[in-house]
Every structure is written in structure tokens, then in C-alpha cells.
């Protein structure tokens, strides 16, 4: 009897082992041939699913699969009526009036404008007015003031919307606007705002406002869409005023906290034609999640009253984009640098293309200065950031850690002439997995303002020298090694 049971157990074990082998082979083939992943990401997943068969399989099912939500891809090809008219007008000007020459005589500007405009319909706005915020309290005071003056509609899109003191401030302003008859729509990411429940917006909804969660987490632990996050920060007021950048809605962004200290970020208030791009992006994101589409009313795309003189483009990317447009923007900007590249980012986990471009720039005599946090908010991401940053020191990069708080700005400044500010970090997640939005600004004035702020940040930062980096402990080196190995999955 014992022998029979023993043989039965051996048979079961062999079948289980064979089943696991078949699953691993099948999953490996799917990862290699079906999924649109980078080579490094593919190798990372192959390592995980084969070294940790059961855990790796579960992890891949949860966060590794590509997105296939038809609604997202369907809306990617749709353009709102008002925005479509602007694109049509701009393309006519492009072909008939030598558009690039009209905008700028800078060859690099022209190439980047061309790439973004032709490939992604990133509308070129030549009448943009930009106000830069580096302090959260100042940004939200301005936003709430604009909300109080809204007449037709307010569209709000954030990754994190906490219902704390700041969240209540913003919500109360939206409720007051709704009571004046202003349309109010709020779109927030279900994962980033997972602690904010639908009932927290009860008063706003009862007043007639609408609140929608992007990729709602019905079963968050087994929902593969959890890995794809709406990371954009967009506000559009009356189709004439726009906000975008790095600040989310929460108390830590406006007050000094024990965990983070002072929150250092960049955010923009813009007017001009570029607001059409923000509006178009919000409407597509909203319609992808709401059963009732926002209409194509021209009221959402009113005649522009922009009186600025800056040239800008709003660029978006995400898993619904095959071109990784923001990554391509960063790559083009890095390759265009002749003197200096300044980068602020909380997460620096570049893919091979970005990493090699920075090394090539350094070897060509271009100065590269990188500002990162001195403390983690996500441990694995931090140690991967520390590794990739430290590795650039050998090529001559200057790496600095922000010492009085947490630097969350996602900014790149090239030669003090043009810059990008937005939601996208320098990592795999921002390039491939999250829905992101950046403002490219072709302005010496704004670039110099950002440049000055960067240098001011360095006065409260500590340089990560080669000597300091090499003194890290064996434990830190181990954490770096693990983080580097799984970095394409972070």
C-alpha cells in the first residue's frame, strides 16, 4: 500500500513538473514573439518566469501582459472636431508657408517640431503664454483661483487625488463652480488614487459633477490593467487655460512632511492654442472610460485668445502608442545638445538607447548634470536609479542628490535654449507602460528660467562623487544589483 502511494506521488510530481515546464515554455514563447517589449525587458521576464516558475507565471499574468483594451486604441485615432480643424489648418500652413522656417530658424527646433507634429499630430502653438510653478502651494492657489472664475467647463485629470486638506480645497472649489452652472468632470487613476473612494466625491456628484476612475480596480490583485497607469496631470478650464506638470493633489505636495521634506516639482499654467492639445487628450482619456462620450461641441475648443509668443507642443505617449513618443523626444533632445544637458527626475532607469545617448554626449564633450532624490519613495526604483546614475560618473556626468526634500520634477533642459516639463520620468514605466504627457517649450526665456531654478537646486544638493559612490556598502551594492536586474519590470 505504501509503495502504491509512493508511486502515485511520484507520478503526480512528474506530471506537475511537466505541466510547469510546458507553461514556462509557452509563456516564454509568448514573451518573445507576441509581446511588444524591449530586449532588456524580455530577458528580465524570461529570467523571472524560468527561475521562479510559479511565482514568475503569476507575476507575469498580473503585471507583465500587454494592454489590449480596444477602446483605448480606437480613441487614439479619433480627433475631436475643434482640434481636428486646428490640425488641418496647421498642416496647410506647414505645407504652404514653410512652417518650420516661419516658426524658427533653429535647425534642431525644426527637426523636433517636425517629428512631433507629423508623427503624432502634436499641434504647434506659437501664441503660448507659460507660467512656471516650482512650489505646490503657489500652483494650487493659482488653480483654485482659475476654477473660481470658470464659466463653461472644468476638466480635471490626475494620477493621485487624495481627499485630504488640499483635496477638499480643490473639491470645494469644483462644487462651487458646479453650483454656478459650470460643467465639472474629474478623471483620476484608480491605482494612484486607490485610497480615494467614489463616496468621497458625493457632494460634487450630488451637485451635478462627474467623477470617473481610469481602469477601475474591480479585482486589483488579478487585474492586468493595474500595471498601466494614467500618470498625466491635466486641467483645462473653459478651453482657454491649461495646467500640466508633475504635481498631484495631496497635502505632501504643498506642505513640508516628515517623510519627504519639501516637495520640489515643476508645473505649468498655459494659455494659447496648446490648450487645444490638453483638451483633446483629456476628452480621449475620458471617453475611453465613460459610457457617454463628451460631445464634439466647439464649446470645448473656443477661438483662441492666447496673447503669448512662445512656441510649444504637448506630447503624449502610453501603451496605446507604438512610437514611444516621449522617449523619442528625450532622445532627440539629448542628441541635439551641443553644450549642456540638465535633467531632473525622481526615477532614472534609462533604457539602452537613452543611456547610450547620454554616454555619447559625455564622450563628445557635452556636460551632463543629473539631479535625483536622496531618499526613496519606492525602494527598488531608488536603488536602480542610484545604480544607473552612479554608472554615468565614469563618463564624466555630474550627479547630485537633493538634500532638503524630494525632487519630483521631470525636466530636461538643453543648452539653456529649449526644455521639456511634464509627467514622464526617465524610466521604462514612463516610456512604455504609463499614460504620460509632456510640454516641449522652444523658448530661451523659459529654458533659462528652468536653468536658473536647476542651479538654485544644486545649492541645496550634494554631489555624488566617484569616491562617495565607491564607498557604498556591500548591502547597497546587492540592492543595486537586484534592482538593476529587474529594472525593465519596475
UniProtKB/TrEMBL annotation:
Give the stretches traversing the membrane. Answer: 12-33, 45-63
Q: State the annotated membrane topology for this chain.
A: Multi-pass membrane protein
EC number in record: 2.7.8.-
Which positions fall inside the PLD phosphodiesterase domain? 226-253, 403-430
Write down any Gene Ontology CC term. Answer: plasma membrane
Q: Does the keyword Metal-binding apply?
A: no
The family database entries (InterPro entries) matched by this protein are listed as: Cardiolipin_synth_Firmi, Cardiolipin_synthase, CLS_N, PLD-like_dom, PLipase_D/transphosphatidylase
The cross-references to Pfam families, in alphabetical order and at most eight, read: PLDc_2, PLDc_N
An example GO BP is: cardiolipin biosynthetic process
Catalytic residue list: 231, 233, 238, 408, 410, 415
Where is the protein localized?
A: Cell membrane
- Say which domain of life the source belongs to: Bacteria
EC top class, as a word: transferase
- Major subcellular site: membrane
Q: Which CDD domains does UniProt cross-reference here?
A: PLDc_CLS_1, PLDc_CLS_2
Q: Which GO terms describe its molecular function?
A: cardiolipin synthase activity
Q: Which UniProt keywords apply?
A: Cell membrane, Lipid biosynthesis, Lipid metabolism, Membrane, Phospholipid biosynthesis, Phospholipid metabolism, Repeat, Transferase, Transmembrane, Transmembrane helix
The reactions it catalyses are: 2 a 1,2-diacyl-sn-glycero-3-phospho-(1'-sn-glycerol) = a cardiolipin + glycerol
Family to which this protein belongs: Belongs to the phospholipase D family. Cardiolipin synthase subfamily.
Cross-referenced NCBIfam families, in alphabetical order? Answer: bac_cardiolipin (TIGR04265)
Q: What does this protein do?
A: Catalyzes the reversible phosphatidyl group transfer from one phosphatidylglycerol molecule to another to form cardiolipin (CL) (diphosphatidylglycerol) and glycerol.
Q: What is this protein called?
A: Cardiolipin synthase
Lineage runs:
Bacteria, Bacillati, Bacillota, Bacilli, Lactobacillales
